[in-house]
Amino acid sequence: MNADTQKATGTDHKSREAAVRRKRGGPIARIRSWFDLHLYSLVSSIGRMAQKPLATTLTVGVMAIAIVLPLALWMTLANVQRFSGNVAASREISVFLKTGIDVPHANAIADTLRRRDDVASVVVRTPEEGLAEFRRSSDLAAQIDALGENPLPSVLIVQPRDDGAALAISLQALPDAEIVQHDAVWRDRLSAWLQFGARIAWVLAVLLGVGALLVVGNTVRLDIQSRAEEIAVMQLLGATNGFVRRPFLYLGAIYGVAAGTLALALLLLAARVLQPALATLIASYGSHFALDGPGPVGVAAVLAGALAIGWLGAWLATGHHLRRSRPNGD
Amino acid sequence: MSLLRFDTVSKRYAGGHEALTDVSFAVEPGEMLFVTGHSGAGKSTLLKLIHLSERPSHGAVLMEERNLARLHTRGVALQRRRVGVVFQDHRLLMDRSVYENVAMPLVIAGTPRGEIALRVRLVLHKVGLSERERALPKELSTGEQQRVGIARAVVAQPPLLVADEPTGNLDPQLAIDIMELFAAMPAYGTTVLVASHDLPLVKRMRKRVLVLDHGKLVDDISATELAP
What we know:
Chain A starts with a helix and ends in a 6-residue tail after the last helix. Chain A contains twelve helices and four strands; from the N terminus they run H-H-H-H-E-H-E-H-H-E-H-E-H-H-H-H. Chain A has helices at residues 3-6, 10-23, 27-51, 53-88, 103-114, 127-137, 141-147, 165-172, 183-226, 228-236, 241-283, 295-324, and strands at residues 93-97, 119-125, 155-160, 177-182. A four-stranded antiparallel β-sheet of chain A has the order 2-3-1-4. With 330 residues, chain A is of the alpha+beta class. By secondary structure, chain B is an alpha/beta fold. Chain B folds into two domains: 4-82 and 159-226, P-loop containing nucleotide triphosphate hydrolases (Rossmann fold, 3-Layer(aba) Sandwich), CATH 3.40.50; 96-157, no CATH class. Chain B contains eight helices and ten strands. In chain B, helix 3 packs across helix 4 and helix 4 (113-126) packs across helix 5. The A-B interface holds A 1-5, 7-8, 12-13, 16-17, 19-20, 23-25, 29-30, 32-34, 36-37, 40, 229-230, 233-241, 243, 326-330 and B 51-57, 73-74, 76-81, 85, 91, 93, 104-105, 107-115, 118-119, 121-122, 125-131, 152, 177, 180-181, 188.
C-alpha cells in the first residue's frame, strides 16, 4: 500500500467521520439536497445541449417550424374573423329600387319603412350619390361618362333592429324593389369558411404536434444511446428511474421552450413583413386594419404547449430505455 | 442475522446455459471472503445476482433476510445503494473528474453538497488519491483508476462491497496493494466479497474462500483453514 494510504490513521478517520455527521442536517438540508438534484439535472441538460450545438439547432428549428405553421394559420383566421366581424356588424340590407323610380318616390318608400318596428334606420342613396361613390372607388368613371346617362337606381340602406333575416324577406315583396341584398348571407358563408379553417388549424396542430414530439423523442433517444454506458453505471450505483430520467426531461423541456420562443419570433417577423403590404391593400378599400399578435396569454400558451411537447417526447424516449434496462429475469 | 444469504440459488440464462446450480452460503457482517473458480464457473453471475443485474431462476438471494427478488423498480435502485461494486474494467465516467466519479453515488442518493465534499475527500485520502481529485480518469494509471473505482464503491459506506476480478489487469505488486485496501474495509464496517481467479493472491490474503466449479459451490474454505 502506498505512503499516502498509510497516513490514513484511525484517529484521522474518526475526526473526518465526525465532521461528516455534523454536516448532516434536517428538513432544510433535505430541501437543499432536492434542489441540488434538480440543479444537477438542469446543468447536465444544458451541458448536453452545448456539447452538440448543430443537433440542438436542428431539433429546435424543426420543432419551431412544426409549431409556427398551425400558429400562423390560427393567427390569420383570428385576424380575418376580427376584420369580417367589423364589416358584418352593420347587418345592413341594401334595397335596389327599380330604375325609373325618382328620388321623392324613394324618400316616400323610406318614410314608410322607417315606421316599421323591425327597422332601426333607413338611408336613401340617390343615383347621383351612387355614381359619385362609384367614381371614387373604381377606374370605370370614363366608361360611365360615355354612357351619357346615369344607369344607377336609388338604393335604400336599411339597418334592421334584429338579425334582419325576416325583414330582408319582407322587403323582397316590395313592388318597387328590384334586388334585396342582405349582408348576413355572405357573413354566414364567411363564418362557415372560418370554422372550416379553424378545423384545419386543429388538424395541423395535432399532426405537427405529434411530429414535434417525435423529433424531440428521437433526439433524446440518440442522446440516451450515446450515454447508455453512463446510464448503466448510474443505475448500478443506485440511480432511480427518476434520477436517470430527470436530465432528459429538462432537456426536452428546454428544447420545447427554445422552439416555442423561436416560433413566436418567426411569427412576429412574418407579421412585420406582411403588415405594410396588408395595410396598403386595406387602404385601397378605404379602411384600415392592423394585424393582431397572439397577446400575452397566447404567448404563455404557446410556450407552455411547446414545453409540454418537449417534456412528453423526452419522457417517452427515456421510458422506453428504462423498460429495456430492468434486471434480466424480471 | 447474516448480511447476505444465498438459498439454493440457480440461474439459467435465456439460451439454456445454467450458470449457477443450487448455490447456498451465508456471509456475516464485517467478513471478507473470496469467490474463486475457473473462467465460466459462475463468479460474475453470482455477483450480478447480488447487485441485481440479474434475477435468480430458482431460490432466493437475501440481504439482511430481505428477498431481493421481491424488489421492484425503486426498491432495486435503493438496494443497489447498499452494495458497492468494483468492476474489473473500472467503468468510470471518462468525461468526469476523479472527484465527480467518486461523488456520483452520493449525488444519486441526494446527499447534501457539504457532506459530499467531506466524504469524497475522506475516501480519496483513504485510497491515496487526494492529490488527483481534479484529474480525468484517462490521466490516471490503471492502478489509480482501480482505486478511484474502489473509492466510488465505498464512499456511501455501503454495508456490502462486491468486486469482480478487481486485480485482473494489474501487475502483481499493485494487485497486492488493492487487495490490502479491500482487507482494510471490514474495519470501517463494510463486508467485502471479491471474485477472483488469481489463486496465489487469494491464498496470500488468508480469508474465507468459496470455490465454484461449473456453477456449483464445491468448497467453502474458512480463513483458519488457510492459516499457515
